Amino acid sequence: MPVASSSRRKSARSRREPSSDRIEEDYPSQHAGDNDDVEGGDEEEEQPRRKVKQEKKARKRARGDSESDNDPPAVVDDDEDDRIDIENFHDQPLDKKEGGKLSGIAQDWEMIRKQIHQGSFSLAKEVATSLADVLEGDNANQALSEVDDIMKTLIDIDYEMQSHEKTLSGIYQQLMRGEPVEGAVDLYEKEVKKRINEFNDRTTRKKYGSNDQYVQFKQGIFEVQKPGENIPPINDFIPREEGDESDDEDDLEIGGVTQDFKCPITLTMLVNPMKSSTCGHAFSGDAIRDYLKNGPPSGKSCPAAGCSQKLTMAMLVADSSLEKRAKLAARRAQRDEDDSDDDDDEVIE
Asked: What is the pLDDT of residues 248-269, one digit of tens each?
């Protein structure tokens, strides 16, 4: 087999092994190629971003072309396409599944209403009875008139809150019957407005004459100013307006009542009074406890004259408001008695 000469082997080696100068020349070109590949990848990543920006700019130009030249340029949010179009998103119909939520909201209205007015009504009554005790004549009339306006405003607000509560309860009942509710927001707002307007269209007597809070308010004032006298019908304190029944008919429907501040057991002024939740009679705390102490579990007959209701301690509740009114009435009666004695002394002289 022929053997290559040394000169041929050198020639072949020279072709396989490039010179150092050649390597240095090729090295930059190889890196340049690599850089081209990297730059090309960056360009591919940038292309989607450019495309999104171009699309947004195109939408902005389209909006600008559709607007009048006199209109100010609209501010466009880049993320507005991801948002709900509220103007074109109509109320969705409610079904039975939403009934529980409406019932919960109605209960929230009731809780808020009671929390707000529980203290407000009591405060107005206490202020009124205190003013009735310390003021007389025109000063008393003016001060009590202002408190009367506050009391009526509280009742108005209370009715408005009840309107929200009752409207939600009505929609809830409709859903529980399996009836779908379309346009719930409009239905709710219209029904609340209707209830409030109906209340505002009533006469003053019809608004407040049968309201328990207002009746107690007026009774408290009368009891302090004229202790021991029969309280006339509440409508006697409210001027008659067009649309009211005649005063004679009112007297037949709503009779006057008399508040007795004496305990039926001790026959003395009430002390730490407790009131029956069944018959409404009040007793001094210690006296009624002694009366019921040895009685049967089913209770004993009410000690008030003419009352046959059964009483147990569980049926009695402390009445701090009645205690305050009793003290004011007693003080007023004592003051009137002292004034009467002074007048008698002057006549004798």
From this structure: 544 434 444 556 778 999 988 8
Q: What is the DSSP letter of 231?
A: B
| pLDDT, tens only, 220-256 | 898 888 877 778 888 888 988 988 876 554 443 444 4
Report helix angle 137-176 to 99-134, nearest 10: 170
Q: pTM of the full predicted structure?
A: 0.55
| SS3 (DSSP) at 275 | strand
Torsion of CA 322, 328, 334, 335, to 10 degrees: -160
In the block, residue with structure tokens 């004034």? 339
Encoded tokens for 231:
């309280």
Conformation bin of residue 237: beta by default, left when phi > 0, alpha when psi is -120 to 50? alpha
Whether pLDDT at 140 is above 70: yes
Q: How far apart are CA 193 and CA 196, in angstroms?
A: 5
Element counts in the chain: helices (H) and strands (E) = 10, 5
Sheet containing strand 316-318, edge to edge, reads: 282-284, 273-276, 316-318
SS3 203: coil
CB 154 within 8 A of CB 124: yes
